[in-house]
Amino acid sequence: MSVPKHIVRLLALIAVVAVVVFSVKKFLVPDSFYQYGHYRGNAVAEIASKAPKLQGSASCQSCHKEAYAVWTSGIHRKATKDNKVQGVVVKYGPGCEVCHTGPAGNHPSKEPMPLSVEDRVTSITHLEHKVHPANVPGRNLMLDPESMRGVCLNCHDKLEARPVVQRQVAVDSHSGKELCTTCHNPHSPRIDNFAALPRPAVDPNTGKAISAVEKFKTGDASAGKSAAAVCAACHGNAGVSVNPIWPNLAGQHAVYLTNALKAFKSGARKNDMMSGIAAGLSEADISNVAAYFAKASCRVTGGDKAKIEAGKTKAAAAGCAACHNAGGLRGTGAAGISASPAWPNLAGQNADYLASALKSFKDDSRNHAVMSSVAKSLSDSDIDNLSAYYASVSCK
Amino acid sequence: MTTLDENAKQEASGMTRRGFLGFLGKSAACVGAIAGASSTIGATELVHGKRGFQQNDEQFAEAVNNPPKVPDYNWNDHEWAMGVDTDRCIGCLRCMEACKMENSVQMDAFHFRTWVERYVYLEGSNTAVVDSQSDPKNIENAGSETKFRFDNRYRNVKVDKAFFVPKLCNQCEHPSCVQVCPTGATFKANDGPVLIDTTYCIGCQYCVQACPYGARTFNESRGTVDKCNWCYHRITKGLNPACVEVCPTGTRIFGDRKDPESPISLFIRNNHVQVLKPEMGNAPNVFYKGTDKEVV
Lengths: 396, 296
Prior knowledge:
The complex is a heterodimer. Chain A is an all-alpha fold. Chain A is elongated, with a radius of gyration of 32 Å. Chain A folds into 4 domains: about 5-50, no CATH class; about 50-135 and about 145-155 and about 180-190, no CATH class; about 220-295, Cytochrome Bc1 Complex, Chain D, domain 2; about 305-390, Cytochrome Bc1 Complex, Chain D, domain 2. Chain A has 17 helices and no strands. Chain B starts with a helix and ends in a 7-residue tail after the last strand. Chain B folds into 2 domains: about 15-75; about 75-295, Alpha-Beta Plaits (2-Layer Sandwich).
C-alpha cells in the first residue's frame, strides 16, 4: 500500500517546519535558560554584580573626621558599635546616609555629595573615584530653613502612630519658627550633656571644625592653683577680675573654660593677651586651671537698675534662656546658669565684659554658630540691658 | 435493546465500563505514587540546598553542584528572610527613600519597592483607617512628590490606637508571580529572593495582577516590572539590604535562617511572629511582629 503523495508532502512540510522551529529556538534561547529552572541562569550573577550604592557610615569617616567623631559620641549613632542600647526605639541610630540622602556610592563623583534633600542625585553614577571641586559655584549645598527642619521632623514630628518611646516634638510649641540647628547639633542632638555642643567651633578660614569633641576629664584644682598665678594679674587671685572689662572666671563651668583656653591656643579665638598666654599652657595646665577657677566662689557685681528690668524682658524675648538657663529648653531654672557645661554661665559675670563679648559676636571679631546670629539681632541698647541683667542675677 | 446487547458484548470481552474506569484510576494513582517516591528519593540524595520553586531534579542538581558564578558567594549556603518589628516603626520613610536611591526606582510616591502604611483606629471604631505615602494629603504635606512624609492629620482627633507597618515583597516560598510569568523573566532564586531578569520581561504585568500583596510596580520608562529583591546585589556581598541599613530604629531585621544566631533567626525564635495573608498559601518569608488582624 503506497502513501498518497499529498500526505507525503504534508509530512515533509511538517518535518521542515519542525527542524526550522527547533533550530531557531536553539539559536534564540541562551544556554543557561533551563539551567536552574524556567529562567536564564546567568541572570542571577548579573543581578548580583550590580555595585552597591549605600556605603554605610564608616565610609564617610576617612574624609569627614570631625563630623564622624561628633556623631559617634552622640545619641545619633549606631549604638551596636559598643553594644550599648540607647533607648527602646533608638537601638541602632541613624547613620550618615539616613539624613544625607543620596547614597555615598555616588560620592565622591563629578557632583559634590548632596547634603540636602533638594540637591540629591537621582541619576546612577557608578563608583568612579573623582576628586570633587571644593567650591561649586552656583550650588548651595545647605538646605533652605524649611527643608532643614523637614529632615529632623521626618523622625521627630509628633504623630499619633509613632511609638511613644520615640522622641517627638510638637514643633509649634517647641520652637516655633526657629531652626532645629539653633540649639541642636544634628550630628549629636541631645543637649543635656557635654557631648552635644551646639556645633564644634569652626575655623572661619578653612571651614573645618577645630575642637574634636572628646570625653571631658576634670583637671586637678590644687595643681591648677599654682598654674593660675599667671592669670591672677588680670583675673584676680580668686577669679574675680580686677577690671570689669575682663571676664570673671570664678564659678564658671570647667568645660567651658577648657574649651575657651584650647580655642585661644589653637588660634580659633584670638585675643592679644590670651592667645599668647594660652599658647604657653600645656593640655594638663589648661584642665587644671579650669578646674581651679570652676571651684572658686563667684561674686555678683550687679548693674544699673533700669537697665536690669529692660534686660530681663529682652532676655525672655531673645531666647537666651534656651541655653543660658539651668533648666535648658525643657523647663525653668536659675537664670544665667547654662544648661550644658560646655556653654558659659552668665551669672556672676561683669556687665562690661558681657557687653564686649556680645559686640564682638555682632561685628564678627568672634564667631560662633549660634551666638553670632543671636548677637546680630540685638541693638546696642539691648546689649547694654542684657549685660546688666545677667551681671545682676544670682550666680549660686 | 442495543444497550443490553453492548453490555453483554463487554461482559463477554471481560471488561465493563465501570471496571475499565476503576482500573484507569488505580493505575494513575500507582504511577503518581511511583513518580512521587522517585522524586523524593532524588531530593534526599543531594546533601544541602533547598529545592527551588518549580525546579526539577536535574535543575536542582545543577543548582547545588554548579551554582551561579557570584564571587565569594554560594546560594546553597543561605536562606534569607526578613523580620519587621512594627512596634518600632516611626514612619519616617527613610527605608523607601534609601531603596529608591539604591535601586534607581522612579522618584515619585506611586512607584516603590517598599512602602509604609499607617493604620489608625479612631475612637470607638473597630476598623482601621489606612493611608500611605501616596495619599494626596501626605504628598501635599511633604511639599513634593519626590519627598516622602506622613502628615499630622490626626492631631486634633481622638485616636484609640495607631501604628505604622512597613511593607515589601514577601519573597514567597510559592510565588504567584513566578507561576504566571510567561517568559521566565521572574523566578525564585535558590537562596530565597524572587528576582526579575529585566532582559526577559516583556511588561505584560500579569505578575502585578497575580501578587496578593501588591508588591510589584510597573516602571513605564523601562517597560519592565520592578520589585524588591532584598537588594540581591548587596546581600550577596555580605551587606544588608538598603532599607535595613538605613532604618534608624531597627524595625527591619534581616539575615540568614541557616545561621541559628543570625538576627532573623533570633527574631523569629524569640518573638511571636506572623505572616501576611497566610490563607493565600504563598508562604511569605517576611515575618511581622506586633501587627493587628486588620493588617493584610
